[in-house]
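Please go through the protein record below and see whether the fold suits the sequence. Record follows.
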Amino acid sequence: MSEQILNVAIPWSLTHYIPLNGFHPLYRALFEEKPDWLNIAAWDNIELSQSLRGDEAFRESLLAEVAKEAVKLENVSLSPIEKDYFAHYWSANQALTRLLPGEIEVHHTAPFPSLCRPFVFHCESFAPVFFPFAHQGTGSMESQEQVRAHYKRIFENPLCLGVFSHLPETITDLSRFFASPIIDAKLHLSRIGLMEGAEENNQLSKGPLSSTRFLFVNSANQNPANFFLRGGHIVLRFWQAFCRDPENKRLFMRCGRPSDAMLRQYGVDLDWLGCHEGHSIIWIEDYLTAHELEKLMCAAHFLLLPSASLHSVSIMQAMGAGAVPVVSDTIGTSRYVVDGKDGIVLSGVFDNNWRRDPECGVMIDQYARNPDLEDALVEQLLRRITELFQNPKKYAELSANVCRKARMEFSGRLFSEAFWSDVYGLYQDFLKDNLVSNGATDLSPAKHHLLIDDNDWGRVFTSPPQPVARLHTGQGCVTEMGGCFIASPGDQAVGLHDWSPITEYVEQSLPIPLAFSTEIKGLGGCYLRVPVTEAERRNTKRFIEVVANKLMPFPLVYALSSKFLKLLRRLYRAWRQFFGEIVTEQKIAQPEANIELVAQDMNGLNIIRCNHQFYAISKNGGEFNKQRADAGDYEVCIKGTSLKDILRKVEELSTVSQESIELVEEGVCGFNLIRVGNSFFAIMQAEGAFDMNRVNTNGYSQLYTGDSLEDVRMAVERSLS
């Protein structure tokens, strides 16, 4: 492979990707096993939140870019399908996608490209490609012809370089649905695979077959609503028939327990269940990290997954851990499991759920409960598992085949190598006919701390891809998602785009202010405080929702009312800005300064966190005082919006070269104003040329620092007043 670097933009941390499972574990190997010649750029929502809060210039610049995207949509005529598509995409996410540095974008599950540079797309199943207009299991697609036309324009666009899937059925259905030679030329069947690791320990982790461990697991986002679609009730019914004498056998249910009413409705014997829960049946309802789930897989002999749809990650995780998968014959299963060779495939789900659409010729699924099918699945489970218990050698053969197949066919390293090589080749082919590769705005080097570091991918991918509640205090909530812990005030419902760190700054009604951190401790207890005007905010929002619902049957009145409400908000903001203190902004009550010494003597500077802001001051500067720091009264004081930002600035100063020192202004009240990288300094004009070593050793009689030229100029003026 050429040593030329390929820079890839990955917008999966944005809110429109939440329903698509954002950083889906299916793609983890593409990041942690990526080749050296590949750079990946993805927004770090923690850093983005802190910069929006602490860097006014950056905030105003980003909001201007969001406004540009909104104006674009207002100035073009959109079809109803396009309006819904861009409403889900959202103008803020469009701007953030475009602003990500990179020569090419990669999207998954459903395409939301910026169309300002080339992109490639990877998906598993057919229906989710058309989200939010189609969903698995519904058996239909809204406005099929309009949807087809919309997505055909996306995939036929010259900037679309390739459409990948690891399922042959998906490639076939995409070809049939679009009937486009242009799109057909872009379709590619890919490998798939997970990170290696679990299979090396599976034989040591499992006990003898006489102490069998069965496992049922929920989806990647561990959503409890998926219990019945995954066949959890069928597993419980099987267990009642199979385990009449539990002995040492255990069934682990890694999912939320449904209510008794729901379990009874789906044929589960509650009297029997109550006798076995906590004994042969163990419910694991708390969210498990990827490492904890891996250990559970390694201990299991069987993964029971008689589900309505395919669940690739669960199957590959089980096979990598040496657990024999017992799955249904839904579309895509044959990509992973061959019945009787490396697993057990239960029949009947395909015939019950799948049919060929007479209009477009693709396979579509419609989930419909069928008691006869459920009885047949329980009977098959009981018969096939019993046969293996009667023939332990057959089980050992299946388990060995499972491990072998995981290593050979589902290697994350091989998946990553093949996929990125294909992407690189497609991009090089594109460049042959296109001298200018993209129109995306690059990110300034000073803002690269806003991107996820390569050593943070583990944190991102082992965190839930959709919101999972971690803490509720009654005054605030803490939610985990995408490698972030997010604090939200009160008990307000959080909408899809409310999870974005930019929402509270964008033109929206009653935005919910959020705090982001890598751990709960980093939130500083803000989830214990409620907004000053929580009741007013909630009541106003409810009033607007009630009026909107009443007006919904009258589209013209609804549209005029919506425009009038927007006009009122603009007038209110303008009035509030004009009169200043007369109307105060709704804010979370701010605590007293929370000060923490983070690091000592880093290149002669101490790193200090004060609330959400970070400072680097001279180690000889004495006790930290926020007022002194903000006024520029320390000899050296560097500000950062996050720890990553401040460490980058300190490192930048320690490696400064003479060429990077620039005299910006001379003789300002007797001081020279100097730029060093992204920091500014003011020294007495009489003290000669600027020397960074003298700064680090407190060699100047008077020294002022700041993040901008205006900061140091104001510090000089204050010192003379």
